[in-house]
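Milestone M4 deliverable, item 7.
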Amino acid sequence: MLTRRFFFTAMLGVAVAACGGSKSHSAPTPQPRTTISVENQGFSDMTIYAIRSGQRVRLGQATGNSTSTFTIPANLIFGATPLRFLADPIGGNRTPISDEITVQPGDQVRLVIPPR
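Output delivered:
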């Protein structure tokens, strides 16, 4: 009877220790920064959007005849993610959109907007 009680006590101790879990406070690994460099060769300033599954997210404004760099939000990219980029001219009526591009965390995408 004593060995049986000892066995149950030992098993209860093991079960409680197993439920304790790890107390490690390591910080999660940050996702690498994903950027897009927009070379606007046209005269018009453009508002740049990223499009994923119909969701349009504004990245920023690319001034005419200059190159601008924007960070693509980490919540848009999950592994290899297909994205499109839309350039909406300020005060214009044409809205060029890129082909679908597969982007991964840490990528540096380059987009060239040709002159009219």
